[in-house]
Automatic annotation (TrEMBL):
InterPro entries: NLP_P60_dom (IPR000064), Papain-like_cys_pep_sf (IPR038765), Peptidase_C40 (IPR051202), SH3-like_bac-type (IPR003646). Belongs to the peptidase C40 family. Residues 146-266 form the NlpC/P60 domain. Keywords: Hydrolase, Protease, Thiol protease. It comes from Ureibacillus aquaedulcis. This is SH3 domain-containing C40 family peptidase. It comes from the Bacteria.
C-alpha cells in the first residue's frame, strides 16, 4: 500500500510514540510505502529505504492516487518556505506553507500573471504560489558531471545557517545526512540517507586524492559535502547549524576532530 505525505513536514519516529526518537522527516508530497498499520500510526518505508512510524493523519493512504501523483506531480518547492494561497494575490488566505523539497503539481493557466503559478496539492486542493518559488524536478543523468557538481554544492549552501535538528531534512532544521541527501535529491539523485556508503545506492568509494567538488566526506557518525579548495559544508551537531569548515590546518575554520577522522570519501562519479 502506498501513501502520500500531506503535512508540511511529517515526523518519522523510531516507535509508534510521538515522544520516541525522530529518525527522519517526510516532506509534503513524498510517496511512501506502508509496511504496517498500527492504531493511529503507520510504519512506512521511504524511497531511500529509511523506515519509521508516521501518524496516519499525516498521510493520504491510497495506492492508486499515490501512483498517479508520482507520475504527474513534477514540480518541487525550491524556496526555503513558500505559502500556497487561495488566489493569485498576496492578500489571499493561506492554504498551507511548504518547505524546500515539497512536491506539487503545476496546472496550466494562461490567464495568470507571470508572477504566479497555479498548483494542485496532494489533497486535490488548488492554490497559487509565486512561480519563482517552484522548479521542475531534475531527472537523474540530465546534468553533465561538471554542472551536477556545481549545482549540488550550491543547493547544499542554500541551507547555510539552518539549525541542526536530529532527523531533520528541511529549512526548519536539518541534520548532516539530511543536508547531503536533500542536496542530491533536489538535483535528481537519490542517495542513502545516512552517514555511510550503502549498497544499492549510486555513491561509490574513492580515494581522498580523487576528491572533487560535490563528493561526500564520511566520518564516524557524520557526513559532509566537499566544496573544493579544502572546504566542506555540513550540518554540524557541534556547530549547531549548517556551516563551512576546512581540511586545511592553516585555515581559520579548520576542525581537527573531523579532518583527522575521515573514514571514507564517496562520489557519484567514481574514477575510471
Amino acid at each position: 500500500m502506498k501513501a502520500i505525505i500531506k503535512s508540511m513536514v511529517a515526523n518519522l519516529h523510531a516507535e509508534a510514540n510521538a515522544n520516541s526518537e525522530l529518525i527522519d522527516e517526510g516532506l509534503y508530497g513524498m510517496v511512501v510505502e506502508i509496511v504496517e498499520q498500527r492504531d493511529d500510526w503507520c510504519y512506512v518505508r521511504t524511497p531511500y529505504r529509511y523506515e519509521g512510524f508516521c501518524k496516519s493523519i499525516e498521510l493520504i493512504v491510497d495506492s492508486a492516487k499515490a501512483t498517479e501523483w508520482q507520475e504527474e506531480a513534477n514540480y518541487i518547492i525550491s524556496q526555503g518556505f513558500a505559502d500556497v494561497l487561495l488566489g493569485p494575490k498576496i492578500q489571499n488566505a493561506k492554504l498551507i506553507t511548504l518547505v524546500r523539497g515539497s512536491i506539487v503539481r503545476v496546472l496550466p493557466n494562461e490567464e495568470l500573471d507571470q508572477e504566479w503559478a497555479m498548483i494542485e496539492l496532494a489533497t486535490g486542493e488548488v492554490g497559487y504560489t509565486r512561480k519563482q518559488w517552484i522548479s521542475e524536478k531534475v531527472e537523474q543523468n540530465v546534468l553533465t558531471e561538471e554542472n551536477f557538481r556545481e549545482q549540488v554544492v550550491q543547493t547544499a549552501l542554500s541551507y547555510l545557517t539552518t539549525p541542526y535538528r536530529w532527523g531533520g531534512k528541511s529549512p526548519l532544521g536539518i541534520d548532516c545526512s539530511g543536508l547531503c541527501s536533500m542536496a542530491y535529491m533536489l538535483n535528481g539523485v537519490i542517495i542513502y540517507r545516512d552517514a555511510k556508503i550503502a549498497d544499492g545506492f549510486p555513491i561509490k568509494e574513492i580515494s581522498i586524492e580523487q576528491i572533487q567538488k560535490g563528493d561526500l566526506l564520511y566520518f564516524p557518525g557524520h557526513i559532509a559535502m566537499y566544496m573544493g579548495d579544502g572546504l566542506y559544508v555540513h550540518s554540524s551537531l557541534g556547530g549547531n547549524e549548517v556551516s563551512i569548515n576546512s581540511l586545511n590546518k592553516e585555515h581559520i575554520h579548520y576542525r581537527d576532530d573531523l579532518a583527522t577522522t575521515i573514514t571514507a570519501v564517496g562520489s557519484l562519479f567514481p574514477a575510471k
